[in-house]
Amino acid sequence: MQPAGIANKMSPSYKMVRKYFIASICGFAMLTFLMFINADSITGYHFQPKLLGLTHIATLGWITMIIFGAMFQLVPVVLQVKLFSERLGEIQFWVYLASVTGMVLSFFKFDTFLLAVFASLVSLAILIFIFNITASLIRVKEWNITGTYLAAALFYLFFTVAAGIMMAINLYSPYFKTNHLEYLKLHAHLAFVGWVSMVIMGVTYKLIPMFSLSHGFSLKPAKWVFVFINAGLILLTVEYHFPRRTIMLPISTALIACGNLTFLYQVYLIMKNRVRKNLDVGLTYSMVSFGMMFAATIVGVFLVFEKFLDFDALTRVVLIYGYMILFGYFSLLIVGQMYKIVPFLVWFHKFSSKVGFEPVPLLKDMYSEKLARAEFVLMIFAVAVTITAMALENKILMYASTGVMFVSSLLFLKNMFSIFFIRSVKNDK
Amino acid sequence: MINEEQVMNALRSVIDPEIGLNIVDLGLIYDIIIEEAMITVTMTLTTPGCPMHSSITSWVENQLKALDPGYEVFVNLVWEPKWTPDKMSDEAKRQLGRL
Hints:
By secondary structure, chain A is mostly helical. Chain A has helices at about 15-35, 50-80, 85-110, 110-135, 145-170, 180-210, 220-240, 250-270, 280-300, 310-350, 370-390, 395-420. Chain B has one domain (about 5-85): Fe-S cluster assembly (FSCA) (GMP Synthetase, Chain A, domain 3, 2-Layer Sandwich), CATH 3.30.300.130.
């Protein structure tokens, strides 16, 4: 018997985790709003102030913020270890929130001095996180595959931050011997494949079987995924540090692609063995996001042959590639998982001690499933139309799709807030 | 004296909040023994990684103690025989999309 789940006696304080979740959900609404009012800038070459600012709200203010909260909650529960320090988690939150805000504003104004200052503070907050989780992980007695993935993700987070701070300083006072933009590719892939995707994969092996009531499947593919992706990332790092345009880039891309495809096969095995055949909104989001991961992997492989594309076509494909990863894969998955994790977290905190004494709600009664379904349709529509707008460089389509995305993010915000601030039982069935 | 039917009815109000089904229809209750002042419930969970692990047995205890505070309640959580979907009631199977 291995006690696990989402919350138990090892869980950190609910208020600390809630803080991270609420900040990131608000960050998501802010991101979609800023994308809407800056829709005409979401075009062309990706290395431009507004796009960099928007990308960092997405990666730091939304995605990484929510992963911090989720890891504070899940690491103690999944690995049966107390968080090393909740106080550090609290300090980190405020340093991180303030410095990410400053960093994004610096990108928008393209003030390279302030950017270097705020990037240093963001790095400090992230180093506090890495220290806190590492100090917790070293006390784990019973290791599992999720722990292995999370430890690797921390490793890549460290190098993502290192590459980021080096680039911020290089923008203020150039000292790189290699091309800044080549280094940007490394920074982005360490963040996307090494940090975020590695966390998603590790947590998927634990949460998707739990939510879909699946058991009796093999986890062997997950071990191969780990080997493929780590080998690919290490080769990629070497290639971007010493760019020689050798066979190294295609090999590393192929390894990462193999890792992603093997991961999707692992998800298929889990879903094939599930007891719960009906997919609720949370799992539907997750499955669509895995489809988008597949599509992004194909585009990533295609980009190895970038020299066969002209500059205009290449800029569009790169933009679509980044959007597919950030919105199609990461954001859809996170939104879906929030519909599973947040109700449970709040329910456990507010109602678990009341079972047997007074009526308590079911998790699905804590939010409007109808609203969530409407939000899902709008979000998928917005992702598809934004990709089309990027391909056609059509500004009207871009305004329309980012507007729809903003509306859907507000519906998500509304549902999440009604869960977080639920006061009493809505029905007692 | 409490009978088995009363115990089963009480356990029907213990609902897995994630699945939305009660633990009786889910087929988690294996055995109920009612002795002089003691109720022993032998039960399992859908999976050892069930999110409700730490709480579900105390909910069963709460429900049965509320039924009659004069009884001691012992919940015997077992993993053999393993729970399978076949143990669910037809109503539960239909709700999970298996019928």
